[in-house]
Hints:
Layout: H1 5-10, E1 18-19, E2 22-23, E3 25-26, H2 37-50, H3 60-80, E4 88-91, H4 94-109, E5 115-119, H5 128-137, E6 140-144, H6 154-160, E7 165-171, H7 183-192, E8 197-200, H8 212-215, E9 219-223, E10 234-238, H9 240-245, E11 256-259, E12 264-266, H10 280-296, H11 298-317, E13 322-324, E14 334-339, H12 344-353, E15 356-357, E16 359-361, H13 366-372, E17 377-381, H14 388-404
Parallel strand pairs: 3-15, 5-6, 5-7, 7-8, 8-9
Antiparallel strand pairs: 1-2, 4-10, 9-10, 11-12, 13-14, 14-17, 16-17
Helix pairs in contact: 2-10, 3-10, 4-5, 11-14, 12-14
The structure holds 4'-deoxy-4'-aminopyridoxal-5'-phosphate (PMP).
4'-deoxy-4'-aminopyridoxal-5'-phosphate (PMP) binds at residues 30, 93-95, 123, 125-126, 171, 175, 200, 202-203, 223, 364.
Amino acid sequence: MNFNVEKIRKDFPILHREVYNKPLVYLDNAATTQKPVQVTEEMNRVYETINSNIHRGVHYLSDMCTGEYEKAREKVARFINAASTNEVIFTSGTTGSVNTVAFSFGETFVSEGDEIIISALEHHSNIVPWQMLCERKKAVLKVIPVNGNGELLMDEYEKLIGPKTRLVAVAHVSNAIGTRNPVERIIEISHNHDVPVLIDGAQSIQHEKIDVQKLDADFFAFSGHKVYGPTGTGVLYGKEEWLEKMTPYQGGGEMISSVSFEKSTYNRLPFKFEAGTPNFAGAIGLAAALDYIDNTGIGNIAEYEKDLTDYAVSKLSQTENLKLIGTPAHRTSVISFLLENIHPYDAGMVIDKMGVAVRTGSHCAEPLMGFFGIRGTIRASLAFYNTRKEIDVLHNAILKVKEMFR
Length: 406
Ligand code: PMP
């Protein structure tokens, strides 16, 4: 493996700071990832040298900035292997992307009595927009159940999908328990019924190669900040055939081709879905993050993270009175657990004081927590800049919690 974690860590200044006079161990990467200097310097460069509103100006800076924004779109298209830049829409994040489809697809293709399928392990961002759509259209939300390991019950899915299904929306990877869903099979089954699929890729884009054409996803959503890019950036990939037919989500500047008080007409793709001044500095920063991943190699990242995750899962599962929540056969580097008789919040407070950032709570997946009969978990989520030594620090912090609450 051509991968040097110490060299990578040098690119992430925040990893070298201390908290409570202890070296920071950042294990909250599913919530947001840290940024390499290549990203922050790129954004500074935009603001210091070419900052100007895009698409509408005729002056030099506006032209430069527009060019770089559109180059960023080309970068995203290549990164996910979209067939065309018309299929890459910049959004504010996964939430923005899912809401765009829930509204625009919903307005165009969903009517009373129709059905939308999601799964039991979705993030609230891939639940609530569909609920709102169903309320608006008097449609019905159906949910693929999970088993005790936190894996989707595919037989049940095949029973749920039918002539009334208009769309299936599932997470590629669960942010709460790390399950990597069999999205290839979900898409295949769905397409056999001529039903399009939205993949929530918020927790997969940073861990594995995404090829939207190979996957044959109709929509793919992800957030820039979870893939080492800037906050407030995101992408909605959509097949042109769907996007062309869908009504715009928001109205405003940029998304129109002409406006009169009688009637406005809409711009061509992808601008039809980008109302208002976009986060152009963010999009350019996101492209720098994707370059960083390309230079590191997503294959190297995946291999390193798998080794680290196996190490962490093995170490944690051998810890007395520690219960893993979610034990799927296929997982990524999100590990949820509970310590017997200790409230996750109390445990999180002590772990934090040891310099280790983990997350506690429901992880915006209350229905999944309900399924497991719990209020929340402690979640460690790893990135390619984490090390085995850091897992050992987490493990020691857990032992300390157990000692304190004995
Ligand atoms: N889906 C999943 C699976 C997530 O992990 C997250 C973020 N935790 C989201 C959606 C929402 O992403 P954002 O807040 O960046 O829009």
